[in-house]
Write a structure and sequence with these properties.
Blueprint (H helix, E strand, L loop, with lengths): L58 H14 L10 E3 L4 E6 L4 E6 L3 E4 L7 E6 L7 E8 L13 H12 L10 E10 L2 E9 L6 E11 L4 E11 L3 H14 L1 E2 L1
Antiparallel strand pairs: 1-2, 2-3, 3-11, 4-5, 5-6, 6-10, 7-8, 8-9, 9-10
Helix pairs in contact: 1-2
Protein name: PsbP C-terminal domain-containing protein
GO molecular function: calcium ion binding
Keywords: Signal
Protein backbone atom coordinates (compact mmCIF):
# COMPACT_ATOMS: atom_id res chain seq x y z
CA UNK A 1 0.00 0.00 0.00
CA UNK A 2 1.60 3.23 -1.09
CA UNK A 3 2.01 6.07 1.37
CA UNK A 4 3.01 9.69 1.04
CA UNK A 5 5.90 9.51 3.45
CA UNK A 6 7.67 12.60 2.09
CA UNK A 7 4.56 14.64 1.47
CA UNK A 8 2.80 13.88 4.76
CA UNK A 9 5.00 16.28 6.69
CA UNK A 10 3.76 19.22 4.61
CA UNK A 11 1.24 21.37 6.44
CA UNK A 12 -1.44 22.55 4.01
CA UNK A 13 -2.59 25.93 5.31
CA UNK A 14 -5.73 27.71 4.07
CA UNK A 15 -5.15 30.70 1.82
CA UNK A 16 -7.53 33.36 0.52
CA UNK A 17 -10.21 32.24 -1.91
CA UNK A 18 -9.27 32.92 -5.51
CA UNK A 19 -11.67 34.52 -7.97
CA UNK A 20 -11.78 33.95 -11.71
CA UNK A 21 -11.29 36.13 -14.69
CA UNK A 22 -14.91 37.23 -14.17
CA UNK A 23 -15.23 38.56 -10.58
CA UNK A 24 -19.03 38.24 -10.56
CA UNK A 25 -18.73 34.51 -11.17
CA UNK A 26 -16.64 33.70 -8.08
CA UNK A 27 -17.18 30.34 -6.43
CA UNK A 28 -17.51 30.56 -2.66
CA UNK A 29 -16.08 28.63 0.23
CA UNK A 30 -12.77 27.24 -1.04
CA UNK A 31 -9.45 28.05 0.51
CA UNK A 32 -7.17 26.31 -2.00
CA UNK A 33 -3.70 25.05 -1.02
CA UNK A 34 -2.02 27.50 -3.36
CA UNK A 35 -1.66 31.26 -3.58
CA UNK A 36 -1.19 33.04 -6.88
CA UNK A 37 -0.50 36.69 -7.59
CA UNK A 38 -3.11 37.33 -10.27
CA UNK A 39 -3.36 39.76 -13.12
CA UNK A 40 -6.78 38.35 -14.03
CA UNK A 41 -8.87 36.99 -11.16
CA UNK A 42 -9.32 33.22 -11.14
CA UNK A 43 -12.49 31.23 -10.44
CA UNK A 44 -12.37 28.31 -8.01
CA UNK A 45 -15.17 25.86 -7.09
CA UNK A 46 -16.01 25.30 -3.45
CA UNK A 47 -14.66 21.76 -3.42
CA UNK A 48 -12.65 21.18 -0.25
CA UNK A 49 -12.78 22.12 3.40
CA UNK A 50 -10.32 24.81 4.44
CA UNK A 51 -8.34 22.62 6.87
CA UNK A 52 -6.55 19.57 5.47
CA UNK A 53 -3.07 19.25 6.89
CA UNK A 54 -0.15 17.13 8.04
CA UNK A 55 -0.22 13.36 7.70
CA UNK A 56 -3.97 13.46 7.07
CA UNK A 57 -2.98 14.14 3.47
CA UNK A 58 -3.42 10.73 1.82
CA UNK A 59 -3.56 9.49 -1.74
CA UNK A 60 -7.11 10.75 -2.27
CA UNK A 61 -6.37 14.18 -0.80
CA UNK A 62 -3.25 14.55 -2.91
CA UNK A 63 -5.32 13.90 -6.04
CA UNK A 64 -7.91 16.46 -4.94
CA UNK A 65 -5.40 19.08 -3.80
CA UNK A 66 -3.62 18.83 -7.13
CA UNK A 67 -6.91 19.00 -9.06
CA UNK A 68 -8.07 22.08 -7.15
CA UNK A 69 -4.73 23.79 -7.66
CA UNK A 70 -5.01 23.11 -11.38
CA UNK A 71 -8.54 24.49 -11.48
CA UNK A 72 -7.38 27.55 -9.55
CA UNK A 73 -4.23 28.21 -11.54
CA UNK A 74 -3.78 31.53 -13.34
CA UNK A 75 -0.73 33.51 -14.37
CA UNK A 76 0.85 36.92 -14.18
CA UNK A 77 4.52 36.82 -15.08
CA UNK A 78 5.06 36.70 -18.87
CA UNK A 79 7.84 34.37 -19.92
CA UNK A 80 8.24 34.62 -23.68
CA UNK A 81 11.84 33.38 -23.57
CA UNK A 82 10.69 29.78 -23.23
CA UNK A 83 8.45 29.95 -26.30
CA UNK A 84 9.30 28.79 -29.79
CA UNK A 85 7.09 29.46 -32.79
CA UNK A 86 5.70 26.34 -34.48
CA UNK A 87 3.05 27.80 -36.79
CA UNK A 88 0.77 30.79 -37.09
CA UNK A 89 -1.64 29.11 -34.68
CA UNK A 90 0.54 27.53 -31.97
CA UNK A 91 3.93 27.77 -30.31
CA UNK A 92 5.83 25.44 -28.01
CA UNK A 93 6.47 26.30 -24.37
CA UNK A 94 9.48 24.37 -23.05
CA UNK A 95 10.34 24.19 -19.36
CA UNK A 96 13.95 22.97 -19.20
CA UNK A 97 14.03 22.90 -15.41
CA UNK A 98 10.89 20.80 -15.00
CA UNK A 99 11.43 18.79 -18.19
CA UNK A 100 8.19 19.23 -20.06
CA UNK A 101 6.82 20.94 -23.14
CA UNK A 102 3.36 21.88 -24.35
CA UNK A 103 1.89 23.54 -27.43
CA UNK A 104 -0.23 26.61 -26.69
CA UNK A 105 -2.14 29.07 -28.87
CA UNK A 106 0.18 31.62 -30.44
CA UNK A 107 -1.47 34.65 -28.83
CA UNK A 108 -1.81 33.24 -25.30
CA UNK A 109 0.15 34.61 -22.36
CA UNK A 110 2.31 32.60 -19.96
CA UNK A 111 2.95 33.10 -16.28
CA UNK A 112 3.87 31.43 -13.02
CA UNK A 113 2.50 31.60 -9.48
CA UNK A 114 3.80 31.13 -5.96
CA UNK A 115 3.68 27.33 -5.47
CA UNK A 116 3.09 27.53 -1.68
CA UNK A 117 3.75 23.84 -1.10
CA UNK A 118 3.70 22.72 -4.72
CA UNK A 119 6.86 22.41 -6.76
CA UNK A 120 5.75 24.44 -9.75
CA UNK A 121 2.69 26.16 -11.22
CA UNK A 122 2.57 27.45 -14.78
CA UNK A 123 -0.54 28.81 -16.47
CA UNK A 124 -1.44 29.77 -20.04
CA UNK A 125 -4.38 32.06 -20.80
CA UNK A 126 -5.84 34.39 -23.46
CA UNK A 127 -4.95 38.07 -23.46
CA UNK A 128 -8.62 39.01 -23.30
CA UNK A 129 -10.68 38.45 -20.15
CA UNK A 130 -11.84 34.84 -20.19
CA UNK A 131 -12.82 31.87 -18.05
CA UNK A 132 -10.61 29.58 -20.15
CA UNK A 133 -7.00 28.57 -19.47
CA UNK A 134 -4.51 25.71 -19.29
CA UNK A 135 -2.29 25.05 -16.28
CA UNK A 136 0.55 22.71 -15.33
CA UNK A 137 0.82 21.93 -11.61
CA UNK A 138 3.76 19.84 -10.32
CA UNK A 139 3.55 18.12 -6.94
CA UNK A 140 6.27 16.25 -5.03
CA UNK A 141 5.58 12.60 -4.22
CA UNK A 142 6.88 10.08 -1.70
CA UNK A 143 9.24 7.26 -2.74
CA UNK A 144 6.43 4.68 -2.80
CA UNK A 145 4.86 6.43 -5.80
CA UNK A 146 6.83 5.10 -8.75
CA UNK A 147 4.21 5.12 -11.55
CA UNK A 148 0.65 6.28 -12.16
CA UNK A 149 -0.70 2.85 -11.22
CA UNK A 150 0.44 3.61 -7.65
CA UNK A 151 -2.75 5.70 -7.52
CA UNK A 152 -4.81 2.84 -8.99
CA UNK A 153 -5.93 2.14 -12.55
CA UNK A 154 -7.09 5.08 -14.63
CA UNK A 155 -10.81 4.43 -14.09
CA UNK A 156 -10.32 4.22 -10.32
CA UNK A 157 -8.22 7.37 -10.35
CA UNK A 158 -10.84 9.25 -12.38
CA UNK A 159 -13.67 8.16 -10.11
CA UNK A 160 -11.69 9.23 -7.04
CA UNK A 161 -11.00 12.63 -8.57
CA UNK A 162 -14.53 13.37 -9.76
CA UNK A 163 -16.41 11.92 -6.79
CA UNK A 164 -14.15 13.90 -4.47
CA UNK A 165 -15.05 17.13 -6.27
CA UNK A 166 -18.79 16.45 -6.41
CA UNK A 167 -20.99 18.21 -3.84
CA UNK A 168 -24.33 17.88 -5.65
CA UNK A 169 -25.59 15.52 -2.94
CA UNK A 170 -25.48 18.21 -0.27
CA UNK A 171 -28.53 20.16 0.89
CA UNK A 172 -28.53 22.75 -0.52
CA UNK A 173 -26.64 21.21 -3.45
CA UNK A 174 -23.09 22.33 -4.14
CA UNK A 175 -20.91 21.93 -7.20
CA UNK A 176 -21.89 19.01 -9.45
CA UNK A 177 -19.02 17.01 -10.94
CA UNK A 178 -19.56 14.53 -13.77
CA UNK A 179 -17.03 12.19 -15.34
CA UNK A 180 -17.14 12.16 -19.15
CA UNK A 181 -14.23 9.92 -20.12
CA UNK A 182 -10.97 8.44 -18.84
CA UNK A 183 -8.14 6.61 -20.57
CA UNK A 184 -4.44 5.85 -20.21
CA UNK A 185 -1.74 6.22 -22.86
CA UNK A 186 2.04 5.99 -22.54
CA UNK A 187 1.95 6.29 -18.75
CA UNK A 188 -0.30 9.38 -18.72
CA UNK A 189 -3.88 9.40 -17.45
CA UNK A 190 -6.35 11.47 -19.49
CA UNK A 191 -9.56 12.50 -17.72
CA UNK A 192 -12.44 14.59 -19.07
CA UNK A 193 -15.09 15.87 -16.67
CA UNK A 194 -17.40 18.79 -15.95
CA UNK A 195 -18.07 21.01 -12.94
CA UNK A 196 -21.13 23.17 -12.40
CA UNK A 197 -22.20 25.28 -9.47
CA UNK A 198 -25.98 25.70 -9.07
CA UNK A 199 -27.20 28.53 -11.28
CA UNK A 200 -23.83 28.96 -13.02
CA UNK A 201 -22.30 27.90 -16.32
CA UNK A 202 -21.00 24.37 -16.78
CA UNK A 203 -17.21 24.18 -16.83
CA UNK A 204 -15.45 21.58 -19.00
CA UNK A 205 -12.09 20.24 -17.87
CA UNK A 206 -9.53 18.16 -19.73
CA UNK A 207 -6.66 16.76 -17.69
CA UNK A 208 -3.47 14.89 -18.53
CA UNK A 209 -1.76 13.49 -15.43
CA UNK A 210 1.65 11.85 -15.46
CA UNK A 211 4.66 11.13 -13.31
CA UNK A 212 8.37 11.78 -13.80
CA UNK A 213 11.50 11.91 -11.67
CA UNK A 214 13.91 14.82 -11.34
CA UNK A 215 16.68 12.43 -10.26
CA UNK A 216 15.89 12.65 -6.55
CA UNK A 217 12.15 11.99 -6.23
CA UNK A 218 9.08 11.46 -8.35
CA UNK A 219 6.72 14.30 -9.17
CA UNK A 220 3.11 14.35 -10.28
CA UNK A 221 2.33 16.57 -13.28
CA UNK A 222 -1.31 17.66 -13.60
CA UNK A 223 -2.13 19.46 -16.84
CA UNK A 224 -5.66 20.88 -16.83
CA UNK A 225 -7.43 22.83 -19.53
CA UNK A 226 -10.79 24.39 -18.74
CA UNK A 227 -13.46 26.45 -20.46
CA UNK A 228 -17.05 27.42 -19.70
CA UNK A 229 -19.94 26.28 -21.88
CA UNK A 230 -20.52 29.63 -23.58
CA UNK A 231 -16.86 29.72 -24.69
CA UNK A 232 -16.95 26.24 -26.25
CA UNK A 233 -16.77 27.37 -29.87
CA UNK A 234 -13.94 29.79 -29.14
CA UNK A 235 -11.66 27.75 -26.91
CA UNK A 236 -12.63 24.05 -26.73
CA UNK A 237 -10.50 22.89 -29.64
CA UNK A 238 -7.49 24.99 -28.62
CA UNK A 239 -7.58 23.71 -25.05
CA UNK A 240 -8.06 20.07 -26.01
CA UNK A 241 -5.08 20.26 -28.40
CA UNK A 242 -2.90 21.98 -25.80
CA UNK A 243 -3.56 19.33 -23.14
CA UNK A 244 -3.08 16.49 -25.64
CA UNK A 245 0.28 17.99 -26.74
CA UNK A 246 1.86 17.82 -23.26
CA UNK A 247 4.94 15.60 -23.08
CA UNK A 248 8.06 15.10 -20.99
CA UNK A 249 11.45 16.15 -22.36
Amino acid sequence: MASISWFCCVRMLPTPTLCTFTPSACYKGLSPPITLELEHHQNTPSLLSSNQEGCAVNRRQLILHTAVAAIAAAATVPNALALNDVSEDVRIYTDDENKFKIEIPQEWQVGTGDPNGFKSVTAFYPKEASNSNVSVVITGLGPDFTKMESFGKVDEFAQTLVSGLDRSWRRPPGVAAKLIDSKSSNGIYYIDYTLQNPGESRRYLYSAIGMASNGWYNRLYTVTGQFVEEETDKYASKIQKAVASFSFT
